[in-house]
Amino acid sequence: MHRQVHPIEAESYRRLRARHDASHLPPLTRAVAERVVHASADLEYFDDLVLADESVLRAAADALAAGAPIVADVEMVAAGITARESVCRVRQAKADPDAGLTRSAAAVRMALAEVGHGAVWVIGCAPTALEELLVLDARPALVIGLPVGFVGAAESKAALRASGLPGVSNISEKGGSAVAAAAVNALLYPDLYDITTTPEENL
User: How many Cα atoms are found within 13 Å in the side-chain-facing hemisphere of 157?
Assistant: First the structure.
């Protein structure tokens, strides 16, 4: 998928790269890291992110190009995914306190029943959504797990890394809808990081 880059965005990336050189990273690894930093204006993400191997990111990008579904935990994440419609069922879901099921976790169950295996899951808000996904047989193409918060966020991301599922996460409690959407957007526009071009050309 091709996209025109606005001059303001180009200048923003130029300034980002003047402050941190990520040119040693493989193309999609760099794409995800730089887009997360760009979305947050937070250079600490370069050290905080934990990304799947380049081959895994490439497989996820290929799956997206082939039409793999995207599932978002909340509508703010879905709104930030600009290239494609995504599935988000949090509005329709209902919590079940007796079963210890939050509305976000219930939405994950609903979405999985709809999309099945092979989806790209993008979680930027609710740790309970990520926790629920990890106990289900989702068989995802990729899990972008970047929920934010002081309760459960870091723990749920650690659980994602321990699960062995293909994932993008970060170590700290920070995260959020903007950075989660940025990570999947990087995979939706892989042509922007063609390894045959220079950093200035492939923004």
Answer: 29
Question: Distance between CA atoms of 179 and 83, rounded to whole angstroms?
Answer: 15
Residue 49 three-state SS: strand
Across-strand partners of 50? Answer: 169
How far from 17 is each of 11, 32, 44, 178, CA to CA, in Å? 10, 14, 14, 20
- Provide CB contacts within 8 A for 24, sequence distance 6+: none
As a whole number of angstroms, the distance between CA 43 and CA 63 comes to 29
CA distance 86 to 115: 11
Q: What is the pTM of this model?
A: 0.90
pLDDT tens digits, 36-52: 999 999 999 999 999 99
Catalytic residues: 38
Residues 147-191 have pLDDT tens digits of 999 999 999 999 999 999 999 999 999 999 999 999 999 999 866
Contact 60, 142 (CB under 8 A): yes
